[in-house]
UniProtKB/TrEMBL annotation:
<protein>
    <submittedName>
        <fullName>Helix-turn-helix transcriptional regulator</fullName>
    </submittedName>
</protein>
<dbReference type="InterPro" id="IPR001387">
    <property type="entry name" value="Cro/C1-type_HTH"/>
</dbReference>
<feature type="domain" description="HTH cro/C1-type">
    <location>
        <begin position="7"/>
        <end position="61"/>
    </location>
</feature>
<dbReference type="GO" id="GO:0003677">
    <property type="term" value="F:DNA binding"/>
</dbReference>
<keyword id="KW-0238">DNA-binding</keyword>
<dbReference type="Pfam" id="PF01381">
    <property type="entry name" value="HTH_3"/>
</dbReference>
<dbReference type="InterPro" id="IPR010982">
    <property type="entry name" value="Lambda_DNA-bd_dom_sf"/>
</dbReference>
Length: 72
C-alpha cells in the first residue's frame, strides 16, 4: 500500500490532477486511479515515467530509499 499512498502524496504535493499524471505516464485516467487506490500495480515503464515526471529517483518513488534524486 506504500506505493498507492506515495502516488497520491506526490500528485498532491505537485498540485496535479490524476488526469495530468495519467497523460504523462501514457495510461488512461481510470488506470492511474486504480494505482492510487491500490487495486493494480503499475508496470516498470509507468513507474519510470512517473518518477521522471516528478524528477525523483524510482527507488524513492517506491519507498526503497530516502534519497530523492539519482546520483549522476
Amino acid at each position: 500500500m506504500y506505493l498507492a499512498n506515495a502516488l497520491k502524496r506526490f500528485r498532491k504535493d505537485f498540485n496535479l490532477t490524476q488526469k495530468e499524471v495519467a497523460a504523462h505516464a501514457n495510461v488512461d485516467v481510470r488506470t492511474y486511479q486504480s494505482y492510487e487506490y491500490g487495486k493494480f500495480i503499475p508496470t516498470a515503464t509507468v513507474l519510470i515515467a512517473i518518477a521522471e515526471y516528478y524528477d525523483i529517483s524510482l527507488d524513492y518513488l517506491v519507498g526503497r530509499t530516502e534519497q530523492t534524486r539519482v546520483n549522476r
